[in-house]
Amino acid sequence: MQVGNATITPSSLFIRNNASASNPTTENKETPVVHELKSPLKKAPGDRSASYFQNLLSMPGLDEYQNQLEEQGRIEQSMVIRKGSQVMGTVGRNGWAMLQESSLNVLWDRANGNTATFAQLLERHGYEVENFKPGAGPSYAEVHEMIHHESYSTLVARQSIEYCQELNCRTGFAVY
């Protein structure tokens, strides 16, 4: 998934939402995720710290991950961007932009996250902008469905499978 100019993966979603490994909200004792290592981690190639890998090994369980995705799907969008009948992107009330073209990312960067400036730039470049008052905008899940022509629950299922595969690779445990 592309959000702004960042590609979202299960691990980047976790790291973004849980800046430190000691965050108590990531603790889920019912999941088979490694929380303590029998031997200390060593520095990896690329000079990444051992705490970086400890953080990855303490990723939340599948239920918590799915809850994060469902919460993301409920985020109200303040702006929907169209080119003709095709939805090209959205900006959420939380300030996140999900854009389908690199040219839109360039405009978002030029606007420095200012939605009014962004809307002006979009209109100058031939995009239609629909702004919503608080409480009247579509959810992220609804916009996802407009763009990708698939249900948001299908996205959650697909990303859950990828997340399990990533957990399997990173922890060595089967996670379902």
Please describe what this structure looks like.
The chain is of the alpha+beta class and 176 residues long. Strand 1 and strand 2 form a beta hairpin. Helix 3 packs antiparallel against helix 7 and helix 4 crosses helix 5.
Topology, pairings included?
Blueprint (H helix, E strand, L loop, with lengths): L1 E2 L2 E2 L2 H8 L32 H8 L4 H12 L3 E7 L2 E7 L4 E3 L2 H9 L4 H10 L3 E4 L8 H9 L3 H20 L5
Helix pairs in contact: 3-7, 4-5
**Helical segment tally?**
7
Summed over residues and divided by their number, the pLDDT gives a mean of 77
- Which sequence of strands runs across the widest sheet? 5-4-3-6
Give me the strand/helix succession.
Answer: EEHHHEEEHHEHH
How large, in whole angstroms, is the Cα Rg? 19 Å
> Sheet bearing the most strands, described?
4 strands, antiparallel
Q: Note the beta-strand portion.
A: 5-15%
Tell me the span between the first and last alpha carbons. Answer: 22 Å
Helical residues, percent: 40-55%
Runs with pLDDT <50, length 5+?
Answer: 19-44
Q: What is the overall shape? A: elongated
Query: What structural class is derived from the secondary structure elements?
Result: alpha+beta
- Total strands: 6
